[in-house]
Write a sequence for this structure.
């Protein structure tokens, strides 16, 4: 007999890894009768899948828990009391603190133990007893989550690697996700084929340091050791129906020759690379424990562009890192001018308790960091607008994902991950069609369906 239907609301904070993890939590809970809801107030189970990268993000979780308490109180005396779980990196880093500050929480679940959710929820429903589960067990996690995935849309994330061994002084990931660990090739291929069979045309391989991938080779392989990301990409490129492959996020030190060559050799590997540098100052990079100089980074970009001349480069930047001087910041600005980014993410340094950076001297004043961020973002936005404007007059293949805001309009993505709006028939949703780009803004492109695509 099928289990009674219950409602599940998941709120996801932060990175694409968390988006993927939320999807898998939904999948593992489906056999228990949980179906997705877009409202927390009528949900039987609410999960906050949290991010610990920035301080404000963690505080938002506590604010959300305060709002959820009213909903839980309303349902406390009914036949369907609400269960509240906190998952993700805040759960891993602040599990005991969550229990102290927010007694409304029933479960705290670290990133590597989502496969235990059914068991933990059952325990909670029986006795409201076991509430903390944050130990690292990545192998068990992925083995347990190997079942059928629920997929919506034509693009999907696929986690291939977790954790980080780099220990950048500003980052909490090594403490919340553990050491670098890679899934076996066969397991990844199985999931990718499953996604393709459900109509997915584009996959994005995820990892905290995805290009540090070193997974067990497929059964029957004559490889002496683990495969790198370049080998994995070649293997995935042979799966029928997968027309586009992307990967994120990468570290410059793991950008090896085989991976760079894959950008030249694989048409399905999109010409877009997110490769964070964080600063243009070698002094700051050393303080961040990045283990590369800006010149090292620039040489890698040069090699990548030689392999794939049309590639778009995206990056990450942190301003106001402890000890950053005006000269260090100007080195970052000059580095941005040198690389010329198609898009980028930039942030003020956020002091994270427990990271080495939090104890460094010469913390930069807030007003100085704010001014630097504003100047950096103005430069990055100018570069992004210029890159988008360069697409005007080009014909680009666009994967149409859904209806647009206007009647008869579709929304899709270019090979460079830009949003594209175009008048096109609904039959093209889920398909790739050639589009002539006629206009551009900083955030999107506007196109007209090519005559050949229209005729088809």
């Amino acid at each position: 007999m099928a289990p009674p239907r219950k409602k599940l609301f998941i709120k996801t904070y932060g990175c694409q890894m968390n988006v993927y993890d939320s999807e898998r939590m939904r999948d593992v809970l489906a056999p228990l009768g949980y179906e997705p809801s877009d409202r927390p107030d009528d949900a039987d189970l609410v999960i906050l899948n949290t991010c610990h990268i920035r301080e404000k993000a963690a505080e938002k979780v506590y604010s959300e828990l305060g709002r959820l308490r009213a909903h839980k109180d309303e349902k406390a005396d009914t036949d369907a009391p609400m269960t509240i779980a906190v998952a993700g990196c805040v759960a891993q880093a602040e599990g005991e603190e969550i229990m102290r500050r927010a007694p409304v929480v029933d479960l705290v679940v670290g990133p590597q133990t989502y496969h235990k959710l059914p068991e933990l929820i059952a325990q909670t429903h029986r006795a409201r007893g076991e509430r903390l589960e944050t130990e690292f067990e990545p192998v068990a996690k992925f083995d347990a989550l190997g079942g059928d995935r629920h997929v919506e849309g034509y693009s999907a994330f696929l986690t291939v690697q977790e954790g980080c061994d780099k220990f950048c002084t500003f980052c909490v990931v090594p403490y919340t996700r553990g050491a670098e660990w890679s899934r076996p090739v066969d397991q990844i291929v199985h999931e990718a084929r499953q996604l393709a069979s459900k109509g997915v045309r584009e996959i994005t391989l995820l990892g905290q340091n995805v290009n540090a991938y070193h997974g067990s080779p497929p059964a029957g392989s004559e490889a002496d050791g683990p495969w790198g990301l370049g080998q994995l990409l070649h293997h995935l490129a042979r799966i029928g129906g997968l027309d586009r492959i992307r990967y994120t996020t990468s570290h410059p030190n793991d950008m090896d020759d085989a991976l760079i060559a894959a950008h030249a050799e694989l048409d399905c590997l999109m010409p877009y690379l997110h490769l964070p540098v964080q600063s243009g100052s070698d002094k700051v990079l050393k303080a961040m424990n990045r283990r590369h100089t800006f010149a090292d980074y620039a040489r890698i970009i040069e090699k990548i562009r030689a392999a794939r001349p049309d590639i778009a480069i995206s990056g990450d930047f942190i301003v106001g890192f402890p000890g950053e001087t005006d000269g260090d910041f100007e080195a970052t600005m000059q580095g941005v001018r040198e690389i010329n980014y198609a898009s980028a993410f930039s942030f003020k340094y956020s002091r994270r308790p427990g990271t080495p950076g939090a104890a460094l001297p010469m913390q930069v004043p807030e007003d100085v960091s704010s001014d630097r961020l504003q100047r950096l973002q103005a430069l990055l936005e100018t570069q992004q607008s210029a890159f988008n404007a360069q697409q005007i007059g080009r014909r680009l293949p666009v994967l149409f994902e859904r209806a647009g805001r206007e009647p008869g309009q579709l929304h899709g993505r270019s090979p460079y991950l830009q949003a594209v709006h175009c008048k096109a028939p609904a039959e093209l949703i889920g398909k790739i069609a050639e589009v002539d780009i006629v206009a551009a803004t900083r955030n999107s492109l506007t196109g007209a369906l090519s005559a050949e695509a229209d005729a088809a």
In short: The first strand starts at residue 6 and ends at 12. The first helix runs from residue 16 to 29. The chain has three domains: 6-139, 140-389, 395-455.
